[in-house]
Structures are given as C-alpha cells and as structure tokens.
Design brief:
This protein has about 150 residues and is α+β, with helices and mostly antiparallel strands. A hairpin with a 6-residue loop joins strand 1 and strand 2. About 30% of the residues lie in helices and about 35% in strands. The chain is globular and about 40 Å long. The longest helix is centred in the middle third of the chain and has 15 residues. The chain has a single domain, classed as Gcn5-related N-acetyltransferase (GNAT) (Aminopeptidase).
C-alpha cells in the first residue's frame, strides 16, 4: 500500500483513490492476484531485509496474462518505499527474469504507467524497452493507462 501511495502520487492516480487505500483492500486484492494460477509456471518471490521482520517487496512472474504463447510477463513488482534505492527491486526483477528464462520464455513483457518516470528509468536501466503497445486497465474502480515494455531473454 505504501509503495502504491508513493509511486502513483502527483496525478498518476487520483489522490482520493490513494487516500482511501486500506490494508484490508490491498491485502484482498493481492491475495487474489497472487493466488491466480496460469499453471505451475508462475513464480511469486518475496524480498525480506535482514533488519526487518516483514517482507519489503515482491515480484510475480509467469506466462503472459494476455495468452501470447512463448511470452513471459513480470505481472507485478512492488517494494516498500522505505527500501527504494537499496537493491531489493533490482534483485526481485532479476529473480523474476531468471525464472522466466528457466521456464523457456523467449521474451518478457511488463506494463507500466506512461507517466511513472521513476519506474520507467528503473526498467530501462535493466535493459527493458517500450514496444509500442498500450492499454487501459481498471484497478479497483480506477482506469489506469499502461505502456508495455519488452525484454529479450
């Protein structure tokens, strides 16, 4: 929840939406998202800091949710903002990529808000590039634009 509030503030998502996010709602959303199965090829990985007793981030990676055969997807990557810039996001992203490689995917995609410059820089430094695809998703009642990034594995 803290990651979303920090990452999507400043107009990327309506402030009223961010203000009303609750732990219970976010837990229910992520519990549902993390329990989705597309076969046994989905990795759900968590980062834990040695100095913190709770998870600080997670990544979900598996087959493309759009059903494109041979295409992997990093479906979610979130790190608590108090741990941004310390390597947890990079480690989670690379772990997700390695999982996709091990599963035999030739390319991977992920979706990012087009105005989320911080996230875009993060993915571009890791070698991801926008491939021109765009979409609009509804997330908890809010329409959110996305652009797709692609990485050859």
């Amino acid at each position: 929840m803290r990651a979303w509030r920090q990452a999507y503030r400043g107009g990327l998502m309506p402030q009223a939406f961010l203000d009303r996010l609750s732990i219970d709602d976010r837990e229910a959303m992520w519990r549902a998202a993390l329990s989705e199965t597309t076969g046994d090829r989905v990795a759900r990985l968590v980062a834990v800091s040695p100095t913190v007793t709770e998870p600080i981030g997670f990544v979900v990676a598996g087959p493309d949710r759009g059903g494109c055969e041979g295409l992997g997807e990093v479906a979610a990557l979130n790190v608590d903002p108090t741990h941004w810039g310390r390597g947890a996001g990079r480690a989670l992203l690379y772990a997700g990529i390695e999982h996709l490689r091990a599963e035999g995917f030739g390319d991977a995609v992920l979706w990012v808000h087009p105005d989320n410059q911080r996230a875009r820089r993060f993915y571009e430094r890791a070698g991801w590039c926008p491939d021109g695809a765009e979409r609009r998703d509804e997330i908890m009642g809010v329409e959110v634009p996305g652009i797709r990034y692609r990485l050859g594995l």
